[in-house]
Amino acid sequence: MNKIWLVICTICIGVLTIINPTSVLPSLFNATHKAIELSFTLLASYAIWLGLFEIIKQTKIPAIMAKMLSPIITFIYGKDTITQETLNYLSLSMSSNMLGIGGASTAMSIKTIESMANNNSKVNFAITMFVVINATSLQLLPTTVMTLLASMGDNNPGRIIVPSLIASTVSTIIGIVLVKIFVKKDKNL
Fold first, then answer.
1. Residue 94 domain-assigned (yes or no)
2. In the predicted model, is pLDDT for residue 102 greater than 80?
3. Is it the case that residue 118 has pLDDT exceeding 70?
4. How many domains does the chain have?
5. Could you report the per-residue pLDDT of 39-98, keeping only the tens digit for each?
6. What separation in angstroms does the CA of 160 have from each of 63, 101, 152, 154?
7. Using an 8 Å Cβ cutoff, are 110 and 130 in contact?
8. Is residue 89 within 8 Å of 131, Cβ to Cβ?
9. Phi and psi torsions of 135, nearest 5°
10. Domain assignment present for 14
11. Can you tell me the distance from the alpha carbon of 151 to that of 9, in angstroms, rounded to the nearest whole number?
12. Residue ranges making up the domain that contains 108
């Protein structure tokens, strides 16, 4: 991937040098400045949400969320593979994905997969389903995208909510159906 990125950047800089040689260095510095600014904006957003999730983990909220999401989780994953610990991690991970902060839920996702693996090095149905659901990421409130839009000066970053909800719902449903069709529940991959 790094080689592909290097080739793309080299081609772009070469084309810019041919088209407008005086704008190469200012463009590089401006892009670097914007990248750093964006990184700090996302870092602040993630810090807030990770702090909130750490506070939530110290309360009884994960157990309440696990109880609320239990029927959906057992329907999707099956009763056999989900322990209470897995259910707690899974509900926190799903909640953070629904809030559009999937990057902030990485630690919870790792804990969820470790809990689902049961000291087995092979991928099973539950882990496959979890990875697909995380990748499709049903988002009720796409906070990361809204943060990006607001940081770029958008006056109405909330307009992304409905399209994001529709797209993520469709992709999540398709992902769940495909895993249920193509992956056997009792078979390690």
1. yes
2. no
3. yes
4. 1
5. 888 788 778 877 877 787 788 777 777 778 778 888 888 776 677 778 777 877 887 777
6. 31, 15, 14, 11
7. no
8. no
9. -70, -40
10. no
11. 25
12. 50-182
Q: Which two tokens stand for residue 84?
A: 């209470």
pLDDT tens across 13-47, in order? 899 889 988 888 888 888 888 889 888 887 887 78
Residue 112 tokens read as: 């969820």
DSSP structure string for the chain = -HHHHHHHHHHHHHHHHHH-GGGHHHHHHHHHHHHHHHHHHHHHHHHHHHHHHHHHHTSSHHHHHHHHHHHHHHHHH-STT--HHHHHHHHHHHHHHHTT-GGGGHHHHHHHHHHHHTT-SS--HHHHHHHHHHHH---SS-HHHHHHHHHTT-S-GGGGHHHHHHHHHHHHHHHHHHHHHHS-TT---
Structure tokens that stand for 184 in this block: 């056997």
Specify the pLDDT at position 50. Answer: 76
- Amino acid 11: pLDDT: 93
The structure tokens listed for 89 are 């991690």
* 8 Å CB contact between 151 and 107: no
Answer whether residue 187 shows pLDDT above 60: no
Domain-located, residue 24: no
